[in-house]
Amino acid sequence: MMIMSTGAFSSSSQLLQQPHAGFFTSSGITKTCYYVNKRISRYRCGCIAASVNQGLETSRANKKQQEKGTTSNAFEIETLTTWLLNQERQGNIDSELAIVLSSISLACKQITSLLQRATLSDLTGSQGFINIQGEDQRKLDFIANQVFCNCLRSSGRTGIIASEEEDVPIAIEETYSGNYTVVFDPIDGSSNIDTGLTTGSIFGIYSPGDQEPCLVEYDHEDDDDEEDQSDLKLGKKEQKCVVSACQPGSNLLAAGYCMYSTMVVFVLSIGNGVFSFTLDPMYGEFVLTHKNIQIPKSGKIYSFNEANYELWDDKLKKYIDDIKDTKKKQYAGRYIGCLVGEVHRMLLCGGIYGNPSNTKRKEGNLRLLYECAPMSYLVEQAGGKASDGRRRILDIKPDEIHQRAPLFIGSPEEMDKLEKYLS
User: Fold this and answer.
1) Signal sequence span per UniProt (predicted)?
2) Which CATH superfamily is domain 80-289 in?
3) What gap in Å lies between CA 161 and CA 100, rounded to an integer?
4) Which pTM does this prediction carry?
């Protein structure tokens, strides 16, 4: 690397005089620099000229903003923390909800670190247990669930937690208990972890309303005839927890997801639009990168797991056959195997995603409470639509914590087209 002497030129004005034929157009600094020191590379000189030009443009932009009465500048960033404080100041959320959302973002940062070091720390593969869903629990499913629970508990503002990895809702002990009910899937698409593909976390926040706080105490006897813990009967207090958690998506106060991929993105809605924050590793903060996201009215991407094609009903088969017809509108098929990744692409590019029921799973595959409802809330806030093929997802009240449902979600025009086939 060449080290430039500070005495090579006395000032930037001396450097930039007498331009020769070269780099830049007439917008700003034209052509190339005058070489006081012949050893200065064209690339280095070009960078100096470009930075000076950019500074002039920034100065002009700031001057225009001052004339309009605005004070922001090109170097200003807005983090998730400052955004939440602004929303609280504007009366869109209260301080307690801001704390809950901040604790969720902290959990997402911790999970990001765990995922990035998963292979190095031997966190890939199976935990060796089957969860309440009857699915093989991955190591990071278990760890991420504990991370979420700990962060929400320490916030002091969460009363009830319902997770994909827990049999029943967890009530926070009275010392730390708050008012909000938080439902979440700690790692969506956990089968992608071992191969380094897209994963995510999904969450939704409810208010308990007039429900009294509940504390979980399992009512079971210590006898040898008890087959397994799935047979435990819920007492009245546990039933209160279930009632508080089992709310329709229309009751959501906030919902969002964090996508772990080539970048870490925290997408959130508190009922006034959809906002996206990207994790800046330099600051360790989520920085606002997309405001008021609006899903395109239509799109050219469809995302269905066509391996199950023969298990679907004939109406859905007809729809899939028609959108694959090259004589009509040209569609492209994409399937990530992670609901978070599918919805994130859809919010930005449009299209439709479907996870329908089939002859093997007539009730559907995805969980209504902590997967379908939060994602449907986000997509509707962005101008999209979500249904189970017959009803709006947000209108469905779950009867149990881990209730499954079919899901079709996407751009409004694409959803209208699908519903005509399914009706």
Assistant:
1) none
2) Fructose-1,6-Bisphosphatase, subunit A, domain 1 (3.30.540.10)
3) 12
4) 0.78
